[in-house]
Design brief:
The chain is mainly α. It is built from 16 helices and 2 strands. This is DUF1704 domain-containing protein.
C-alpha cells in the first residue's frame, strides 16, 4: 500500500499569515492530542505542556481533556492554508510532547511520523526521538549534531565569540586564550546598570570561569549567559529550560528547536547523558510544579523576539543599559503567570543553585574579597 499523499503547501498568494484564532488553536491541540496519546493516553506533564503552549503561543488556553483527537489527515487539511514553517512549528510541538517521555513509546513515534507525512514537513529531532525509543542513546547525540541547528558548523559562525582561533566545532572549549579571558574580565569596567557589568556580576556571584581559561564553558555556550541576564532568568536547571526555550524558539531557522530538545534530554528525561561541552544530565526538572508554564512563556518571548541570540556579538552591546538591550531586541516582559509560577531572575531568591553559590564564595575567598551575590540567593 502506498503512503498517503501530504496536503500540498499553499501557493504564496494563498498563505494564511494571520495569528491562529481560538477555533484553529483548538484544532491544533486536537491534532497534538491525536499524535501524542498513544495506547496510554496523555501524561499529566503532556497535558500541562499543551495547555501552556496554547496559551502562550496563541493567547487561547485549550485543555486537551476537553477536546477530541484529530487524525493526521484532518489536521493537515485544517492547516491547508498554512505555510511550511507554520506546519513545522506544529510538528515541533508534537516533538516537544514526545521528548518529555522516557522513553518515547514506539506507537507515538509512528503516529508523529504519520502526521509529519500528512503535513508535508519534517524535523531532524524525529530521528533523536526514534533513537530514544529504541534505546540507542549514544546515537541520539550523533543525531543531535547531524540534524540540529549546529549541523554544518563552519568557522564563520564563530566570529562573534572573539576566540583567538576560529572554532571548528560549536561546543569547542577554549582553555588557553588570554586575550579572550581578558575581554571577559574587562566587563567589570562597564557602566553601572549595563549589560556587561551585569554579566560580570553574574559570573562573579556563581564562581564561573571566563572563557579562554581552563575549566571554562565553551565560548558558544557562554553566549547563553548573556541571555540569562538580558532576559532575566536565574541559573537553576529550571531556568536553563526557560533560557533554551527562549533561545530555541527565537532562532528564525526552525532547526533552533534542537537546542530546546537538547535540554529536555538533559534536564527532564535524562536520556542525553551530556551535551554542549559542559552540561550533564540531571532529570526531572520540567516536571516540577509550574515549570511547564514557565517554558511556554519563554517560548513565547523567543517567538516575539525572532532573533538568533547565540549569533549576537554581545560585547558590542556590553556598555548599553540592560533595559535598552531588551527594548532593542523586542524582548517582551515575562507573563505575570510565569512569575507567579516561580520564574525568577539571576538576582533573586531562587535564582542561583547551592553549588553555584558555594563556587562564588570559594572564588571570593581565593581572591581575598567579601562575597557578594548581588541579590541572588537560594
Amino acid at each position: 500500500m502506498s503512503e498517503p499523499q501530504p496536503v500540498p503547501l499553499p501557493r504564496a498568494d494563498q498563505v494564511d499569515l494571520r495569528p491562529p484564532d481560538r477555533a484553529e488553536t483548538v484544532r491544533i491541540i486536537r491534532g497534538l492530542k491525536g499524535a501524542l496519546s498513544g495506547a496510554g493516553g496523555l501524561t499529566e506533564l503532556q497535558k500541562l505542556l499543551l495547555r501552556a503552549v496554547s496559551r502562550s503561543m496563541t493567547g487561547f488556553e485549550v485543555d486537551p481533556d476537553t477536546v477530541e483527537p484529530l487524525d493526521a489527515r484532518g489536521l493537515a487539511e485544517a492547516l491547508a492554508a498554512r505555510n511550511e514553517i507554520f506546519r513545522t512549528r506544529v510538528l515541533q510541538l508534537m516533538l516537544l510532547g514526545e521528548l518529555v517521555l522516557n522513553p518515547p513509546p514506539e506507537d507515538v513515534c509512528v503516529a508523529i511520523g504519520g502526521y509529519a507525512q500528512a503535513l508535508g514537513v519534517d524535523d531532524g529531532m524525529r530521528e533523536v526521538a526514534k533513537d530514544y525509543a529504541e534505546g540507542a542513546l549514544g546515537l541520539a547525540l550523533t543525531d543531535f549534531e547531524r540534524n540540529g541547528y549546529t549541523a554544518g558548523w563552519d568557522a564563520d559562525r564563530s566570529t562573534q565569540l572573539h576566540a583567538r582561533s576560529a572554532l571548528t566545532e560549536p561546543w569547542q572549549q577554549v582553555a588557553d586564550d588570554p586575550e579572550l579571558a581578558a575581554r571577559w574580565a574587562a566587563l567589570a569596567h562597564c557602566p553601572e546598570g549595563s549589560l556587561g557589568l551585569g554579566v560580570h556580576r553574574f559570573y562573579r556571584a556563581r564562581g564561573f570561569v571566563h572563557p579562554g581559561l581552563p575549566d571554562s564553558a565553551p565560548p558558544y555556550l557562554a553566549q547563553h549567559d548573556w541571555v540569562h541576564v538580558v532576559a532575566d532568568y536565574g541559573t537553576t536547571l529550571e531556568s536553563e529550560l526557560e533560557v533554551f526555550g527562549l533561545i530555541g524558539r527565537g532562532i528564525p531557522d526552525p532547526r533552533g528547536f534542537s537546542l530546546l530538545a537538547m535540554v529536555l534530554g538533559l534536564f527532564e528525561t535524562g536520556l542525553l547523558a551530556r551535551a554542549a561541552g559542559l552540561f550533564e544530565a540531571d532529570a526531572g526538572h520540567l516536571s516540577r510544579e509550574g515549570v511547564a508554564l514557565r517554558l511556554g512563556d519563554a517560548m513565547r518571548r523567543g517567538a516575539v523576539t525572532g532573533t538568533d541570540l547565540l549569533g549576537i556579538d554581545w560585547f558590542d552591546l556590553a556598555d548599553l543599559p540592560v533595559e535598552r538591550v531588551r527594548r532593542d531586541l523586542g524582548l517582551p516582559e515575562k507573563d505575570p503567570l510565569a512569575v507567579r509560577a516561580g520564574s525568577v531572575g539571576p538576582w533573586s531568591p531562587g535564582g542561583i543553585s547551592p553549588f553555584q553559590r558555594g563556587s562564588g564564595m570559594k572564588l571570593a575567598a581565593a581572591e581575598g574579597r567579601r562575597y557578594d551575590s548581588y541579590g541572588a540567593d537560594l
